[in-house]
Amino acid sequence: MCGSRGRGAFGRYDEDFSFVSPVVKYLLFIFNFIFWIIAMAMIGIGVYARVVKHAETALACLAVDPAMMLLVVGVLMFIITFCGCVGSLRENICLLQFFCISLTVIFLLQLAAGVLGFIFSDKARNKVTEMVNNAIVHYRDDIDLQNLIDFGQKEFGCCGAVTYTDWSKNMYFNCTDNNPSRERCSVPFSCCISTNDKVINTMCGQGVQLLEYIEASNVIHTNGCIDKVVDWIHSNLFLLGGIALGLAIPQLVGILLSQILINQIKDQIELQNYNLRHRADPWR
Predict the structure, then answer these.
(1) Dihedral of the CA atoms 247, 250, 255, 259 (nearest 10)?
(2) pLDDT score recorded for residue 59
(3) Which regions of 2-145 does DSSP assign to beta strands (E)?
């Protein structure tokens, strides 16, 4: 199929001509092979997170189990890139069309999700707030979830979803009178305003929910993480746009290369059919 031919002196093709470009063919293969390896890594991480890490209770705060989402994305990516690898090497139009159509559908779904997220930003914000509040409820249930929340609060200088009193939703930090916890009316130390002290005071958030807002702001970050994240997004729109473009470019490159190769293979098939029909014709 990929034998090369060139057009002869009388408008004929000589025996070394080929419409299929080796550069396009192997570039598409390398492109798919790289993402095929990434897909296998995602599947491995997903299996590890699902089998070894038993965090179903903590992950109940999320709309989707990240381990299962990683597995599903990894398996889909594995299948699509495998078809791209085999299709490019074997010059199989069906596999290449499946690869091209799949990438196009994924790209359009991502584009639609971005547009819908922008249009329904208020609903998206409410959903994220609900997820963060649920994460606060399960804060002590899983060490990885706890580290994730602490990291977010430290990085963004925030506390809770909307305000620091959101930590009262957690059974350990709940501020009701009948709460026997030693952490009653407190917040995690990750809410505290950082100091230059070498020793971290993990009790710095003790009892701050009993303080007035101005008093508490001297000790901890009182603003919620949702507002902080929204402010960060508004301040880094160019960065986020660059990341989105960086994710879109490989998909567009894959679609373009696969479509070019499909057209070249079709032209090559037409050439072969032409040669078969005129093989016995001395005047071709």
Answers:
(1) 170
(2) 54
(3) none
